[in-house]
Specification:
This protein is mainly α. The chain is 67% helix and 5% strand. A hairpin with a 2-residue loop joins strand 1 and strand 2.
Length: 85
């Protein structure tokens, strides 16, 4: 299934890589976002975001799309040299 031009499997693989390398947390921190704000955007708890960032759990279902979309926006802003969210 393709969502937004990128298949769910591709989003999931990229997200797992970002989590494994610490990139997911780095993107959030550089953007000045708390785990609570990310959680609110993804409609989960802050402890869930913490578990995702540490690799204790991986997002599933609609959470893959929500979390990947948020992080992809942060990557895009980083590439554009923007640091405000």
């Amino acid at each position: 299934m393709a969502i937004g031009g990128m298949a769910l499997a591709e989003r999931s693989a990229e997200l797992r890589e970002w989590i494994r390398t610490g990139r997911a947390r780095q993107l959030r921190v550089v953007a000045g976002l708390s785990q609570a704000l990310v959680a609110q955007d993804c409609e989960v708890t802050a402890s869930t975001v913490h578990r995702w960032e540490t690799g204790d759990r991986l997002p599933r279902g609609r959470n893959i799309f929500a979390y990947h979309s948020l992080l992809a926006r942060l990557v895009e802003r980083e590439l554009l040299g923007e640091h405000d969210v």
